[in-house]
Each structure stands twice: as C-alpha cells, then as structure tokens.
Amino acid sequence: MDCCRTWFAFLAAEVIQQSVDSCEKDCPACMDGLYSPLLHFHNMRNLREKLDLYYYRVISEMDISELFNKFILHFGWLTLDNDEFVAIGQHFVRFSTPDAIYFGKYITKQNDFALYGSSGEVTEVQHPAKTIKAKRTKKNTISHDGVPGASTSN
Ligand SMILES: [Zn+2]
Q1: Domain range list for the chain
Q2: CA–CA dist 75, 111 (Å, integer)
Q3: Residues at Cβ < 5 Å from ligand 1 ion
Q4: How far is the CA of 43 from the centre of ligand 1 (A)?
C-alpha cells in the first residue's frame, strides 16, 4: 500500500465525514428535535452538495498534525516522516477542491475497509484473506441521505 496515496485517501475520508457531520450540526430540524426526514436540511443535500457547502470551512478547522498521528496509528506506519507528511497533507487539502475530493477516486472499493475498518493489523497487505474475513466495524457511516441501498458510485 502506497503511504502517500493512502494519506490522501485518509484526508479525503476525513473531509467527507466532517462535511457530512457539519451539515447535520447545522440542521435546524435536528436542533428542534423534529422527526420527519422531510424537514431535515441534511436529507435534502447529497454528498457532493455537502462537500460544496462545507469543504472550505472543514479544512480551515482541520488539524493536519493531529490527523497524521491518527493516520500512523491506524495503519501502524509509525516511522513515516512527520514533518514531510504533515506538509504534504496541508498542501493536499489547500489545493484540493470539493470536486477534486468527490471525483478524485482517493477512496476506492480496494481501500475502503483499510480506511474505515478498525485500526491495527487488518491493513497488512501480506494477509489479504484475513483482511477480508475480519469483521467490519462501522465508524461514523457516511449518510447517503437516508436512502437505503443508496450507492456512492454515481
Ligand atoms: Zn436534521
């Protein structure tokens, strides 16, 4: 697994998740505790719109150093050069755009589990069979506007 590509994917996943979360935090219906999905702002926006709305706010508040620490712990890549990767990460989010993140194919079917699964040895490339069999732990699932079976592939 390429460390740098995986670092970009990790950052993309973080930006996407924080954009989704921000959209829910800004939802007046959530604040008012309303029940109908029809009244919830975040249900009216698709993922691309959420990125458009929140990308720049999210990256302005992101702590790349802190994310790098999470990244190396998650993947067990403790020897990566901190300063170099933090600098690369800062450039990556600064020069990316919502569309670049959305269409950039940083997150793929192949790295989805490594990014979103639990941290530790599950990402070892030498044991692909083990990785596939490992029980998936869902962490902050990305909302697809509450549509069951909605796909991210479009
Ligand atoms: Zn809501």
Answers
A1: 3-116
A2: 12
A3: 27, 29-30, 40
A4: 7
